[in-house]
């Protein structure tokens, strides 16, 4: 009996020594960090991956962005452009941005933009804001300063109108402005580009949605084009 009692005491003493007094505190700190936004997430959206038919010639367009980071600080990448029927790439806009949440609905952004396509390349510093405006309009507004002293701006807004849980109508418009013409990139001054569209997509799954639509595009010095579009939207 005395032997069993001594064995129980020794076992309790060993368990007390093995327990780390900081373990509970570490677990608590981990939970606090998670609540404060220290967890790392990643997200990517391919908003437009489409063929455009009609007008002068057929075109392919891509437009997407992705980010990695926490609730307040993110590294964001954006890319958009066109591929013409002749295989030439135009309007290639690629951006690497630091993204900081400043409110529940809006983030401030700053970083670099490079115009990389079949034309001469340009580099810009970028400063902007992105988020959800009143009435649930997605909004992006960005200003640019080039390495040659040019100024530019881009405004983009869209809205998702839920016709059913899977069928969504999305009007969208993108405006581009430049302080000076850039003939090497086929860009005029002032309001240089207008790209507007109306797309109807059906979500086969939560992350995959084919769509049909119509677009209106106008560039300085060129006639305006109406085109039919067909594409797919996906995200993960």
What radius of gyration results from the CA coordinates? 26 Å
Sequence stretches where pLDDT stays below 50 over 5 or more residues = 1-36
Helical percent range? 10-25%
- In N-to-C order, the SSE pattern is HHEEEEEEEEEEEEE
Most strands sheet: 12 strands, antiparallel, barrel
Q: Look at the structure and give the mean pLDDT.
A: 86
Q: Termini separation (Å)? A: 64 Å
Seen as an oligomer or otherwise, the chain set is single chain
Structural descriptors:
236 residues; mainly beta; twelve-stranded antiparallel beta barrel; 2 helices; 13 strands; globular; disordered N terminus
Structure description:
The protein has 236 residues and is mainly beta. The protein is built from 2 helices and 13 strands. The protein has helices at residues 2-18, 23-35, and strands at 41-53, 59-69, 73-84, 89-101, 106-115, 122-133, 137-146, 151-158, 161-162, 167-178, 190-202, 208-219, 225-235. A 12-stranded antiparallel barrel has the order 1-2-3-4-5-6-7-8-10-11-12-13. Strand 9 and strand 10 (167-178) form a beta hairpin. It starts with a helix and ends with a strand. Mean pLDDT is 86; it is low at 1-36.
Topology:
Layout: H1 2-18, H2 23-35, E1 41-53, E2 59-69, E3 73-84, E4 89-101, E5 106-115, E6 122-133, E7 137-146, E8 151-158, E9 161-162, E10 167-178, E11 190-202, E12 208-219, E13 225-235
Antiparallel strand pairs: 1-2, 1-13, 2-3, 3-4, 4-5, 5-6, 6-7, 7-8, 8-10, 9-10, 10-11, 11-12, 12-13
